[in-house]
Amino acid sequence: MEINVKEAKSKMGSLLDRSQKGEEVVIMRRGRRIARLVPVSSTDKRLPDLKDFRDSITVKGDTLSNTVIQGRNEERY
Question: What is this structure's pTM?
Fold first, then answer.
């Protein structure tokens, strides 16, 4: 369904109801599409917990701070 901005303002409640039922509502301004009302997806698309990922990473060698300090000391003359 396509509707202009003026109509969308006056019919927002019914447009939200239609969108909730699965219908896509496109809002137009001066003949151009500017927005879409779509139903919220029922599946939660969260990112996986990054804590498990961080815990799986092991650091090999010196820490970054030690590497920077060593590099600075070697460059001094």
Answer: 0.52
Q: Give phi and psi for 53, each to the nearest 5.
A: -65, -45
pLDDT in tens, 22-70: 999 999 999 999 999 998 876 666 677 788 888 888 878 888 899 999 9
- Domains in the chain, start-ordered, CATH in brackets? 2-39+49-75 (3.40.1620.10)
CA 24 to chain CA centroid, nearest Å: 20
Q: How far, in Å, are 72, 73, 77 from residue 69 at the CA level?
A: 5, 6, 15
